Structure formats: structure tokens, C-alpha cells
């Protein structure tokens, strides 16, 4: 059972994912992709941490998501990945893509391409329950900055590809779920 | 009967709200939160005004929304609040929050926190029909400006909290309603 | 049979439109509104071209969309217009509107008004199948730039008006269709 939960900023998607994880009856392992690189990010991470149940496991993996999923997935486990958007951001900034785009060059991001391909290949093979949280970011018009356009394109493509290998896809709006599949 | 109508810019949410208000059979009172601070805002207000029925009442309240709702709600009245997004903007700029964020400080907005708590507490107690219009603003990626990030966060939280105390929640896309609850 | 397919950037709306066109059993004519004004646009156009069937017709028309639709619509033809967002952008930049707004003046765009009115009048009269692709751009908050605000307003209005004369309206999210009408 694989589920993708998507929505805009503060749409309630993480809270829905956590509710679904709690209700699934499995041991929940929270797979965090966030890196506390500044004070604002640290506050957002702390906000999420406060809300989580104390008996949940925690794995932190900013880059090798497919590897972390393979290592921790098990029949009795629910892996909650929060979120694919920060993971995408980590991949773009860890590799050369962000710097290339800012310098006006065309984009080539083998790290991103490889990590995404590994995720899409890995997901259907995993035992247990997998819940993935991701942002919708392409509904605000074409951004002025080339890097923001690249990010919106990659996020849109990633959401499409992950949705295609999930059993259930849910859009969250104002805290309310809308089933897309 | 409380309804939240949400959507993007020019999605047709105000027109839907006005239609629902007209069809409800009650005396309609339009509760405007807009302030005509510049020419563009004045044009937008005039555009809304032209469309409204001449026999509707009008109340203007940029800040104390809970107070205005309590004063004007009645069994035979439909209060149409347009919109929560401008109200949120008024609260952020009337208080110190916007200036704090622009100066790089962390955010503390007692005016916003108090006004929001009052609204959420007041809504379930009101007689008659209440229709609230609000924008979805968090679907365009993470804004570059700290103030825009704060606004998207607060708007998302507000929409979730108001939706939680409404009987009906409708998302409007290209003028077409999609029932979320 | 007229269908409007809308969604955010990289939501899969063009792919869905192409699938629907292929399945319709008619001769497909792709009506492209894009102009390859820079390298990034040229790459996006090439990406779309690769995916299309070789036996589809191609018409390129950046401005006079109603005229092109009238000339090419026929009972045995499916016209696939991709997309209304680039067309709107062409109209705003070909006329004086974009320059007026950037100079701080109020907006008056007779080219846009005339072309939009012609489209809305023409659509219900066309034989055969028409599929129109358009972007949702107003879900990311109020843009800082006046031109971006104008664009979001005009795009929102256009989507509402086109939706009102279509038999079917589909929102695409993460590659998955959501029927609005």
C-alpha cells in the first residue's frame, strides 16, 4: 500500500499523512528529508516534531531516499516520508544543477535523475505501508527566476511519476482530503 | 449554515458566494474587509460593488471581523464575508508582524492570533447563514520574500481552521464548484 | 464536443489532452500558440513535439486563435489548442498592455479584449472536437509585479469564460484527471 499526499503550503497534508500513518496499525517510522540549515527551517522541523507520537521511529535522510526506504521498509512498518519537496531541493542544491541554472547554463543534473529513477524503481518493490508527502508548487504562474522555473518543472514531473506508482493519491485543500486515485 | 468558499485569484469564488447568498432567501449583508488604500484596490472594490444587488446591506470592517459578525448575524440574515485574505493582510500590516518579518526578526503577532481565535470561537455560535470567501495562496512554491512565506503560512492555517468549523467547504476552479465537504 | 483541460505547470495536462485527442478517432490537428523567442522556449516546444504522433497536422498561430479555429475545424477533425496561457501572453505583449502596466498606467488592451471575445463567440459554433489546454496561475498569492497581477487576473477570467462554453472541464493534478464538469 503506497499513498502520495499532495497539497499547497499549510494545506494540512502532513497532518493527514500522520493521521493515516497512526490509523494503519503498523509501527510508524518517520523518514525526514529536511535539513536544519537555518533558524526558520529549524523552527519548521521542531513544529513537525512536537506533533508526532513519541513511539514513532525517526530516520533522517536528505539525499539517498531509495536506499533509506529499502533499509527500513518491512511488512509491519509504515514509512512516512515528509517530504519529497525538501528532498528535491536537497538534490538540486547538492548537485551542480542549481549553480548551472543561476549561471544561465542549460540544466543537467545526474544526481537528481539517478535519485528519482531509483525512487520510482524502488517504490513498487517495498513491503509494508509507504506514505509520501509532497508539495504542489506550479499553480502560481511562471516564476521570474530560472531556478524557480526549474524547481517547479522538476517537482511537477516528480509528483506525476510518484503518483503513477501509488495505489492512492490524495490532494489536501484546507485540511480536507480529495481523492485523485 | 456556515460555508467557506475558496479558490485562486479570479477563480469565480466571489461570484459563486454572491449566487449562494442570493439563492438563500435571506436578507443579504455584504461584510467587506477591503480597504481602498490605492487606485488598484479601489478599482477592484468598485468591480465587486457593481455586481452586487442594490438591496443588499453593506458593512465595512477591516480588523474586528468576529465583532462585526456578532453584531450583524441574525436568523433572517445571510452575512457574506469577502474576503478573509484581505482581512489577514489587514491584521498583519496593522500589527507589528509585517515589520518584524521584513527586519528579519521572528514573528509574534498577538493581534492576528487574537482576531483569528475570536473568529474561530464566534463562527459556530452565529445564527442565520454565513458565507466566507478566502484565497488559496500556497500552491506556487515557496516565495522568496520572508513576508510572503509568513502570509502563505498564516493563510493556509486560517483556511484549515475556518474549514474545520464550516458545514460546507467549496473549492472554485475556473468558475466551477468542487465540494470538499 | 469542447473540452478545457487545466492544471498547474508540469501537471500532465498536455499529455492528457494528447491522449484524449488520440482516443477520439478523428484526424488530430495540433494548434500551437507558442513562439520560440528564446532557447528555453525552443526546448519546451521541442519537448512537446517529440511526444506528438507523426501523423498529426500542425498549425501555428500565436494571436488570431478564433480565426485559426474557424479555418481548421471540421466534423472529422480534433483541434488541440496548446495552450491558452501562451496565447494570452502573446496578446498582452503584442499589444500595449504589458508596457502600460510596467509604466504604472491603468490597463486597456483592446487586442486582448477583442481576441478573447472572438474566441468565446467562435467556440460554440465549431464542428468536430476541440480540446483546449490552459494553465491555472492564480493559486500562489498576489504577485509583487503589477504585470504578473494583470496576467493572473486575465488568465483567471479567460479560464472561467472558456469553461462556461465547454462541455467538459478537467483539472489535472499529478497526472490524474479531476472532472469539474
UniProtKB/TrEMBL annotation, chains A, B, C:
Example GO BP: cobalamin biosynthetic process
Catalysed reaction, written as an equation: adenosylcob(III)inamide + ATP = adenosylcob(III)inamide phosphate + ADP + H(+); adenosylcob(III)inamide + GTP = adenosylcob(III)inamide phosphate + GDP + H(+); adenosylcob(III)inamide phosphate + GTP + H(+) = adenosylcob(III)inamide-GDP + diphosphate
A Pfam cross-reference name: CobU
Pathway in which the depicted protein is active: Cofactor biosynthesis; adenosylcobalamin biosynthesis; adenosylcobalamin from cob(II)yrinate a,c-diamide: step 6/7; Cofactor biosynthesis; adenosylcobalamin biosynthesis; adenosylcobalamin from cob(II)yrinate a,c-diamide: step 5/7
GO molecular function, one term: ATP binding
Superkingdom of origin organism: Bacteria
CDD domains according to UniProt: CobU
Record: residues binding GTP: 7-14, 32-34, 49-52, 60, 82
Alphabetical keyword list: ATP-binding, Cobalamin biosynthesis, GTP-binding, Kinase, Nucleotide-binding, Transferase
Active site: 48 (gmp-histidine intermediate)
Top EC group: transferase
Keyword Lipid biosynthesis: no
Keyword Membrane: no
EC number, as in UniProt: 2.7.1.156, 2.7.7.62
Family stated for the protein in its record: Belongs to the CobU/CobP family.
PANTHER family: BIFUNCTIONAL ADENOSYLCOBALAMIN BIOSYNTHESIS PROTEIN COBU, PTHR34848
Entries under NCBIfam families matching the protein: PRK05800.1
Function: Catalyzes ATP-dependent phosphorylation of adenosylcobinamide and addition of GMP to adenosylcobinamide phosphate.
Name of this protein: Bifunctional adenosylcobalamin biosynthesis protein
Amino acid at each position: 500500500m503506497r499513498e502520495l499526499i499532495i497539497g499547497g503550503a499549510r494545506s494540512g497534508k502532513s497532518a493527514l499523512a500522520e493521521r493515516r500513518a497512526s490509523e494503519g496499525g503498523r509501527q510508524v517510522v518517520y523518514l525526514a528529508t529536511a535539513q536544519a540549515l537555518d533558524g526558520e527551517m529549524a523552527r519548521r522541523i521542531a513544529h513537525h516534531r512536537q506533533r508526532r507520537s513519541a513511539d514513532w521511529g525517526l530516520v533522517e535522510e536528505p539525499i539517498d531516499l531509495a536506499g533509506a526506504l529499502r533499509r527500513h521498509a518491512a511488512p509491519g512498518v509504515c514509512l512516512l516520508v515528509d517530504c519529497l519537496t525538501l528532498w528535491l531541493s536537497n538534490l538540486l542544491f547538492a548537485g551542480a544543477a542549481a549553480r548551472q541554472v543561476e549561471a544561465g547554463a542549460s540544466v543537467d543534473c545526474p544526481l537528481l535523475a539517478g535519485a528519482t529513477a531509483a525512487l520510482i524503481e524502488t517504490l513498487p518493490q517495498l513491503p509494508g505501508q509507504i506514505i509520501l508527502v509532497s508539495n504542489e508548487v506550479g499553480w502560481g504562474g511562471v516564476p521570474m527566476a530560472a531556478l524557480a522555473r526549474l524547481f517547479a518543472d522538476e517537482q511537477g514531473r516528480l509528483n506525476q511519476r510518484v503518483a503513477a506508482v501509488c495505489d492512492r493519491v490524495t490532494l489536501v485543500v484546507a485540511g480536507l482530503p480529495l481523492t485523485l486515485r
